[in-house]
Amino acid sequence: MKNLALATLLAALAASPALAETTASNGPSGAHYANGSAEPVCTVDPATRDVSCTGTTIGGVGHTNAVATLSATYSATVQCRNHGGQIVNVKTQTVASSSSGQLTPSRNGQLIVPSLSTTAPTTQELVAMATCPNGNWTKELLGGATLTSFTYTLVFKGFSQPYISIVGA
Hints:
The protein is elongated and about 70 Å long. Mean pLDDT is about 85; it is low at about 1-15. The protein has one domain. The strands form three sheets. Strands 2-12-11-7-8 form a five-stranded antiparallel sheet. The protein has a four-stranded antiparallel sheet with strand order 1-4-5-10, with no helix packed on it. Strands 3-6-9 form a three-stranded antiparallel sheet, with no helix packed on it. It has helices at about 1-15, 125-130, and strands spanning about 20, 20, 30-35, 40-45, 50-55, 55-60, 65-80, 85-105, 110-115, 115-120, 140-155, 165-169. It contains two helices and twelve strands; from the N terminus they run αββββββββββαββ. By secondary structure, the protein is mainly beta. It comes from Caballeronia concitans.
């Protein structure tokens, strides 16, 4: 019973949304969330470890373009087994996944920011990227991919720091 309660709590924490930090000084002077829009929110699907961030609309940007980027880092442990059954050097694979888009304001100085998402690497992708000391050895994935961290940013052209930043682990 305790294990079920702990698993439920961990799943709820994993699904908790990561909230945005908006820094007004890192965007055009009139930039604001349009009426009916809010800061983006990123969530992690506890079953797949995929990351999804909601879209938004930012008004008052004039003709200022922007780039929205979502980057996620996943890790997994792969072990190599020789024909004699010996396990050799456990290796941790780190894989990056990202999604981004160039954003151009529509009429009336509004920037429509689409939702962005990343997908966790599959077992086959993780095993294919792993290297063993000898090509005859068998690669074995221990567990699955773990989401190490993710970062969502929206940076306006002409600004070096993000207007919107979301960081999650």
